[in-house]
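[agent] plan:
  1. take the single chain provided in the ticket
  2. run structure prediction with default settings
  3. attach C-alpha cells to the ticket
  4. add a short note for the reviewer (M.T.)
[agent] executing step 1
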Amino acid sequence: MLGKLFYRGIDEMLFFSQKLIDDSVSTRKADPSRMHLGYWGADLDFYDRLRKTGAKREGFISSGKERRDFPTLINAFSQTDAQIDVYVPSYSGQDYAAVFSQLNVSPNIHVHMDVQADYEGFAKEVNRHACVAICCQETKYTVGLTTVVEAMALGMPIICSRNPQIPIDFDKERCGIAIPYYNIEGWKNAIEYIQGHPKEANEMGLRGRKLAETTYNDRHCAEIAAELLLKVCHKKNPKD
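[agent] step 2 finished; step 3 output follows
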C-alpha cells in the first residue's frame, strides 16, 4: 500500500529496459501506462572525439566497478594468453582488494587497484583497447549498462555477463558475446573467439556503434524525456 501511494505521486517513469518495465508491472504498484522505455545511451559527440584520435587498440579491458565478478573474469583470462587491463576504481560498495587477495593473477592480467581517473581519462583508456569485458554478479537491475553503452559508442566488441535487465541482446544484434553468470569456461571460449576472429570482432563493434547511432544515445533518450515532460505540462496546464 505504501508503494502504491508513493508511485501515485509520479506522473511518468522512464526505464532502462523493457524487462525492468515488465518486472515493475508485475508488482502492480504503479500504472503501466506511466511506464516508458527510455533507450538510455551515450553522448556520441564526446566519444567521436576520442575515436578520431586514431589510438591503436590492443587487448581487453575491464573498467567497471559495481558488483563485478572478478573471480570469474580472472580465472577465465588465466586460462588464456590474452592481455587484459583490469581497472578497479575506488568503490565503497565492495572490498575488491580482499577479493583479489584470494585470486591467482597470471602475468597476462594487469590489475590497477583504486583507480581515481576522471571520466574522460577512463574513456581514453578504454579507447586504447580492442574489446570490453563486463563480468558481473547476478542482479535484478542493469549492472554493466554504463560500460555497455560506452563500448557501443566507441564501436568496440563486448563480452558481457548475460544480464536480462540490459536492453541489448548481444547475440541477436551480433555486437558482442553474452555469457551466463559465473561461467568460467564460457568466458574462456569467448575470449579465445575474439582473439582468433579479429575481423568478426571488428564487425561486432561496428554493429554496436550502429545501434548506438540509431537507438541508444543521449539525444534519443532526451527526445523521449522531452515528449513526456510536455505531456505532463499539458495535463497540468492544458491552456498553455
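[agent] step 4 note for reviewer: The longest helix spans residues 218-236.
[agent] ticket updated
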